[in-house]
Fold:
Amino acid sequence: MRSDAPVRVVVADDQEAVRAGLVLILAGSPGLTVVGEAADGEEAVALCRRLRPDVAVLDVRMPRLDGVSATREIVAEGLADVLVLTTFDLDEYVFGALRAGASGFLLKDTDAEGLVGAVRTVARGEGFIAPAVTRRLITAFAATAPAASAASRAAAAELTPRERDVLACLGLGLSNQQIADRLLMAESTTKTHVSRILGKLGLRSRVQAAILAQELNLPAP
Structure:
């Protein structure tokens, strides 16, 4: 996506009133354009295949194909980055969506500004988890997740000491600015490290990196 191009969004929610509200907020925000709406997961996947949006905003509880399964298909095919919405901050569906490769997680009671900001953050390739539950969500996920695979451990071993520190900070749920402050470096440098970490580990988002950091039990820097 060009930096000056509008962020193209597909919105999927089985509740018509909720979906209409999401579309109204996003379509009325500068730099965002809603290119499609879906009432269930199957329709969302089909729209993403046809329209190739930048971001798919999906409710996790939908008929025919739930948000987790839809996320898995969309991510596996590289159709869009996914931002999942849920009513509950530790909904079991959210864990499944993150495992499936979702780039972000947001509560439905988030205000309009928060929704727009989350979509823009995900479109930039940065993962997003609702700030109020970031650390709790990552910790709870890691507690139920299996130990990191041998391949993941081998890939992590190839990181530089600084990259391992940044990865550990991601595991604490810290933002780029918080990591920069903690490690005494510029925020732009942090972004570069995060990008390199994702590339070396073969991950799609900082959310997945945070979970891996917990699985690796990296010590806090």
